[in-house]
Amino acid sequence: MGNQLLGDLDSGQYKIIHNNEKMYYNRHVLFHRIMGRKDKAEGGKSNEHSSVRRRTVLSSLGAVGTGLAGLRATPTVLGESDSDDTVIIPTVKHEGEVLESKEVSKKWWDHEEKAEAVAGRFRSRFADVPGIDGIGIGTSSDRIAGRKGSEVIIFTNPDRTPTVETPDQAEGVPIVRKESYNPEPDCYGGDYDTVPGGAQVEGDGTASATCPVQMPDGTDQLMTCAHLYNRCQSNPVGEPLYQSGQFVGLIETGSVRQDWVTAPLDDNAQVNGFDNTIAGTFIDVTGYVTRSGLKDLKSTGQTVYKNGITSCETSGVVEELDVNNRMCQDTSYESVSYEYAKTSTPTDPGDSGSPHYKEFTFNGETKASIIMPHYGGESVGCPAYRINEVHGIQFGV
Question: Same domain, yes or no, for 280 and 212?
Fold first, then answer.
């Protein structure tokens, strides 16, 4: 468990516990305490906020935000609920604001924090051990306060047996071994005036668009997978992106390791812009699922979705976090990414780049928050929260 901050607000106590999210949440918890808006939803209590009132309240709490500056800027818990048995966690975030949060069992969350700590220690312990690629977090068969618990996964190299023994459990957290995933990227094969997430796109092959995104400089761009291009041999920046043969723009930036690229709308584009929805739905893309939101999904088995050009809309559940994914083997770009997540959604060739997402309600409307762009046949991808954390990209425009 991270540092705690106790204080008094309107004659009530609040507590902030930090770990993996942005410092902005420290002030947002006080909004929860003042507004007291709690709506019951399956698997927990979901909070829906007015953006105008949120800004007003948070503005009045500026001094409190300053007082929290000494903490490491990574809280995963917004604060205590009215019950000592529960805590509030952020589950969806967009442009620095929490759009959805849940009140969950403190007993379950303490277990999740313990699993996180055990995984962190194992990463240090086995960092240089031959045959161990990395450490992830999966879903165990244990139930904690009605939710699925977590297990720590030791990802092993299929071509090299680890030279050390590994335990079956640590501090009550189950430990399992599993070979690192090595999925084959799905790149195979319509017209949109404005391009939504999930639409067909082409580069060196055929794939699916993730969704429109907003870059740190404020420009809107279209995201898809980096392996749409021969990114293991050359840098895809400057390569053209098409939508069913219609020119969209040139790739401006991306990440081989996280497997995404983006392109702004070119002056000579043959489409008229980007559509902030997901193909096959009328649902707006609004934000991304946080790390604590992924843990919530993993523990409850809530349905998540993926829309790609071959399999259309498929559904499943979040199964694993911190998945080890081997890529670009035998090239200068060869690496093992430990950042990925895994869902159970079915997939077919051509779905690469497509959005994995969950549906949630905000201001009375159904929205889609992005879980990750799709990488390959194992339904894995780099979580959107991690892309935002590293590159400052917002999902939805």
Answer: yes
